[in-house]
Amino acid sequence: MTQISGNYDVAIIGGGLAGLTLALQLQQQSPGLSIVVLERSHLPAPSAAHKVGESTVEIGAHYLSETLGLKTLLEETQLRKFGFRFFFGSGNHKDLSAADELGASDYLDAPSYQLDRGRLESDLAEIALSRGIDIRDGCRVTTTCLSDGNSHHSLEYVKSADIHTIHCQWMVDASSRFSVLKRKLDLSLPGKHKVNAAWLRLDSKVSIDDWSTDSNWKTRCNVAPRRLSTNHLMGSGYWAWIIPLVDDRTSIGLVVDPDIHEFSSCNTFDRLCAWLDKEQPMLAEAVSSNASDLLDFKRLKHLSHDSQQLWSADRWALTGEAGVFADPYYSPGSDFIAMSNTFICDLIINRSKQPGKLALYAEIYQRMYKSFFSNTMSLYQNQYPGLGDTRLMVVKTIWDYAYYWAVLAWMCFREVLTDINFIRSIEAGLVRTAELNATLQAVFRKRAAERRSSAGKGRFFDQREIPVMAELNAALLHPPADIHKEFTDNCKRLEGLSESLLTLLNQTSNSGQPDCSELGDLRRRFG
Fold first, then answer.
1. Residue 510 has pLDDT above 80, yes or no
2. Per CATH, the architecture of 1-45+116-185+306-374 is what?
3. What is the DSSP letter of 416?
4. Which CA distances in Å does 82 have to 57, 85, 358?
5. How far is residue 502 from each of residues 226, 300, 392, 396, measured CA to CA in Å?
6. Closest-CA residue to 165 (of 11, 51, 283)
7. How would you label 348-364 residue by residue, b for 16+ Cβ within 10 Å and e otherwise?
8. How many CA atoms lie within 13 A of 243 on its CB side?
9. CA 142 to CA 67: how far, in whole Å?
């Protein structure tokens, strides 16, 4: 039986992180909007849901905590993240202190979180319902009809064998890789960056803090356990993650370059265990000893994907993984949700009232978003062969962080993404820094092709002791009186930093060179 289920200003297909946060942001900025969210699964979602994307970084964390006002919820129900942490050569040792470590001895100023996606999405759905947003679960969208002009779009969904029809002014696809509208409109673009992933969750705590008996190693990070970091075990052509979740659960995953590691060698639980036993024995032991606590296992080929278009003056949009996805390394997924949702909110709430400008702003925002995505993809493409090279990855990580904090995160924290006049005023600086990033990534890519792999020497590269990292991160929380000057200073800082990092990358000896004020005693730490 077909039922007419109402007219709405906005219909959002997908009630995961992207769709629910968009609904909340729209309602927060324009309480009068009528919004319906259609979710394929049943709510509440299970704890430790079968999703990847638990680790947030500064943009995504700021969006959740400050833009959406969820800071208390995050602090009470999720885990404060102890930053990123990288280990090189860990597969060669029985004690993790013998590996090289890149991470922080103390929390950096701008917070980020480890998310149990199932718990968070259930909480978001409850908040949305309490604010009058119509959330419907167990709904399978079968038909979408996009109209021309000002007439309503329509869609049909099936729930409990009944067919329901909804009319809406705006239709947003937040259906993740189902990509309902993207498929309908044939917008898919294959990702040029080929990586595959397998991941699992354990109903038990895996703590790398137990992987060493060295007292000095244990005390050099004594403000919080390393377990609370997003921990990376690095090797040529791959990286493995270990992420803590609430209730002492753990997410573990492996991402591989198929040109170096055949996915068929790690695409089942047993094969993954065997692969880890060879490449990362300490992690293999942790997984096998907790195998009885396995909650789920998933694999996915070709994680990266692109789209020809993200939104339109014809009043439709894509957000989250329904649009684009880069790579889980550096955890940019929630960042891109934050940015796409912010652009979409502005189009729906502000630009729809100016029909003559809607198409213009849709195009401007799309160019910006695609530029951000392209710059992010440059961090990954053809870089996986170098992931096991300590010197390369310390230098590259410092640059990648600095560029992110000085430009993209800076724009989000200063809330200028949709201030087109301001963006135009800093356009020359944006172009120069993008070109500078492209230059450095080309150098990193050339070094990565050598596939150097570090055995590990027990060295610690402390991000708290690298001035440019600590200062750029802290500055995000303290906007100055003149943000034009701040951005100009950030650009100049990146230019000087690039020269110092390239010198450090190319050094064959660590003696006879002065320390760099931006990098502290990093040169000597390599020694």
1. no
2. 3-Layer(bba) Sandwich (3.50)
3. -
4. 11, 8, 41
5. 30, 35, 10, 9
6. 11
7. bbebbeeeeebeebbeb
8. 35
9. 33
Cis peptide before 44 (omega within 30 of 0): yes
Contact between residue 108 and residue 473 where contact means Cβ atoms under 8 Å apart: yes
CATH label, 79-114+194-300, candidates 3.30.9.100, 3.40.50.2000, 3.40.50.2020, 3.40.50.10680: 3.30.9.100
Domain boundaries, the chain: 1-45+116-185+306-374, 79-114+194-300, 390-450+480-527
Tell me the range of 1-5, 53-57, 410-414 where mean pLDDT is highest: 410-414
User: What is the model's pLDDT at position 46?
Assistant: 65
Separation in Å, CA 171 to CA 168, 186, 494, 525:
7, 16, 40, 53
What is the reported pLDDT for 362? 96
Token pair for 232: 């990376």
Q: What is the pLDDT of residue 50?
A: 58
pLDDT recorded at residue 42:
87
Q: What's the pLDDT band for 242 if we cut at 50, 70, 90?
A: very high
The first and second tokens of residue 70, run together, are 């969820």
